Amino acid sequence: MASMTSYFTFFLIDKFGVDIQVSQYCLFAFLGAVAIGTVLGGSMGDRYGRKYVIWCSILGAAPFALALPYVDFALTIVLAVIIGLVISSAFSAILVYATELRPGKVGMIAGLFFGLNFGLGGLGSAFFGWLADKTSIEFIFQVSTLLPLLGIVTAFLPNIEPKHG
Fold it and tell me: Looking at the domain assignment, is residue 64 inside a domain?
């Protein structure tokens, strides 16, 4: 997410030669999808289970993310919107899942997750900025599209939801 929000406009300008205004509209489409995905993720977590939503969200974005650096402009925008919808659906499920791991500590868990999310995202953006200066924006997208594959670690999350009937 940090790579997309920080470098998506530069990627579009660099790879496709679009102007700043067009790249900002494309970023707006991505961020709109992120907002919608976050809301939908909470509902899906309630219906299907949070661990399942986390698993599907992070790994489900991987094929779209992996294709992103290699497609044309129109498909890049379509994939960015899909990635925004899919990967952001995990956030609300992750937050609620974490609060269920530590009942009675909702404020602490929410603060920890928001702090870690934005703090690590900022560190990741700084690292990718340094790496972009050493290589290229396109290289950053080729590397960062591999990150959703880390969603495989979701398999190690404990099952905390009650079994239904």
Answer: yes
